[in-house]
Amino acid sequence: MSSARPMGRYVSPLSPSHLSWQTGPAAYGSVHFGKSLLWAGEDALTLYILVRFLQIEPALAGAMFLASALWNAVCDGVFGGALLRWPVLQRILPALSIAAILAAGGGFAVLPMLPQGDPLAAGALLALFRTGFSLADLPHNALTRRLALEHGDLGIARLRAICSAAAALVVGFASLPVLLAEGVRSSSVMLLIGAVGLVAMVCMLPLPAMLAREAVRESLERAAGEGSFIDPALVVFCAASAVGLAGLAAAGKAMLHLDLGGPELTAGVLLLLTCGRLAAVWFWSPVARSIGSRSALALAYGLSAMFIPLFALIPQASPLTVLAALGVMSLPGGGVAMLSWAVLSETIGGKGGQTPARYAAAFGLFTMSIKIALGLSGFVVGGWLASVGQSADIEPAAFWPLGVAVMAGCGLAALLTHHMPGNTAPSAIPPA
């Protein structure tokens, strides 16, 4: 009797159980954890490092952050299109991913070590990081297709969310001494950031082997899935994600610059938000099973639009109020982080007949949108800091204009997600 397991539309001849570490959820989770260490650290700390450690003007730092994100988006689009046009590139992905891992991890580790007041060097290093990250990120995301066929869209989204939240938790702990240093570049801070980059690279080591095996599978499926990988639902979803995630990311970055009742509490913002994001995995999973991932995502965006602007009303020197507000803010934000990937996987998979290359190209369109959004968030926060005239210890009341912009972005994302074309049936995924 054959030991191969059925995989929905595709039954793989290359999936015996003894290969589960190399190609299964464990390897996928390890790579996603490592990638998320770099992503969370870069997204949360880059603007802070540019402004406080490298002494770059906030408006210029925000523009650099935006430019690097746009470059990352361009890399995603070009790389995804190249994989779709020339499937033979699948064969070089394992070797390319090794160089990409080294570039991304090394770029992250070296950034705070650059000389102060040198935007050219910082910009070049950001470009290196973004290029390497894109070349590792896109093929890794394409591997989601295989696991989603086995474990369901929401199941894999839950795995991604847990690994991402765990990585963000590590970054949150690591950020405490970075933020408490208040712009002083000590050797311990440098070593800590370097250690995060090194751990990320080690965790991503299974990626080349996974891509080598996927290249064999791609050769078996290349004739399937003709037609465009883009449909109206995917375009609407990418637009919703861009405006919604830009607002959420801007709010998270702004928290690092507010006076929330003491430097220790401000330094712990990332950690507190991450704890709430991890709890959101279990909070939102039953909601998505009940009303569908798409409706649950629209609800999470709507709640974010309601709660985040209220941060401007928090009284200073009120730690308990701050803790409660961060907890409330993190739950819908964590829901957006998890459910976005479930809805994306459902939207792409709903077309049927998707080869790995087409799946990667569709993922590339989505990651282009979110990376542009995250770049815009840094640009907006840099402009907000310039308008306030401070880069630290800002009164929460000054958050109000930015909070209104976040409300508009999240509210529009909720409407677009709710009115996306296609099925919104609840996901048939067993409880975690």
UniProtKB/TrEMBL annotation:
Domain of life: Bacteria
InterPro entries: MFS_trans_sf
SUPFAM superfamilies cross-referenced by the UniProt entry: MFS general substrate transporter
Parts of the chain that traverse the membrane: 92-114, 120-138, 159-181, 187-212, 233-253, 265-284, 296-314, 320-344, 365-386, 398-417
Sorted UniProt keywords: Membrane, Transmembrane, Transmembrane helix
Protein name: MFS transporter
